[in-house]
Structure formats: C-alpha cells, structure tokens
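User: I'll paste a sequence; please echo it back and then give the predicted structure.

Assistant: Echoing your sequence first, then the prediction.
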Amino acid sequence: MRRAKSLLIWLIIVAALVVGARVIQPPQRTPGQPVTGHARVIDGDSIEIAGISIRLFGIDAPERNQDCHDVNGAVYACGRAATQALTAAIAGRSITCTPRDVDRYNRDIAVCMADNIDLSEAMVRGGHALDLARHSRGRYADAEREARAARRGLWAGSFEAPAAWRQNNTNR
C-alpha cells in the first residue's frame, strides 16, 4: 500500500512537470508564417519580435563590437552605428517579418517590412550592411552600388567584411 501511494505521488509530480513544461513553451508557429509586432533590435541585422529571433534576409551588417575606419582613417564603432541605424529605420513601428529560411542558430531569416519599407534594403542603401548576393541573388545589389557610389556609412571609409571580422574575432 505504501509503495503504491509513493508511486502515485511520483506519477502526479511527473504529470505536473509535463503540463508545466507545455505551458512555459512558446506557441509553435507554422514554418513561413509571418510574425508581426514591435521589434527589439539586437544588432544591425538581427531583431526579436515576441521572443522570436530573426535575422534580416539577404544582408550582413557589422557585428555589435566591430570597429571600422571613417573617411579620415579614425576608428569608429560601425557595429553600434549599424545597430542605431536599424533602430532608426524601425522607429518604434510595428514590423512584419516573413520567414524565408532558418539559420544555424535557429533564427528565422526573414524579409522584414515597416510601413512598406524593406528593412534589409534600408540598411544596405544607408551603407550600414552588405548585400549577401549569394543568398539574396543580388536583391539589394542596386542599393549597395548606390551606397558605395555615394560613400555612405561603411563605404565612406574602410572596413573588414562582417563575415571576415567574425572569423578573425571569435573570442570577442
């Protein structure tokens, strides 16, 4: 009798843990389902909406701790500048992101719009990110050419490509 009572208590505890785990988990989304809401900017190409991590489609922005050189050769925090540029592009508006893929960090890679403005394009056009032509098939190539010709953002000085910077600064 005592053994049956002990077993019953353990079963109740396990059942409570299973139910609790299901309540705590975020709701499952259908792959490709758009996400809409107010974004928290992580860096120049990453945001979070309602607990969902999103990487902007087709671009690569400097990392948060990355430094670059301005037109006079002075060092500046281009990673922070890219983060501020994305924050300004969003300007507190509601964002809609349509996932295209998932990256190795389990983030949605998505085209994100704010009032019909493609945030990836805005970042590239402002010179704060590079077009990842191999992924976007050059979707933002014209915006990058325009930024480069106008010497906006990164193009005003010199910089290490974000992917190369990440590879060379893995301990930062």
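The chain is about 35% helix and 25% strand. Strands lie at 35-43, 46-49, 52-56, 59-60, 68-69, 75-76, 94-102, 108-114, 117-118, 130-131.
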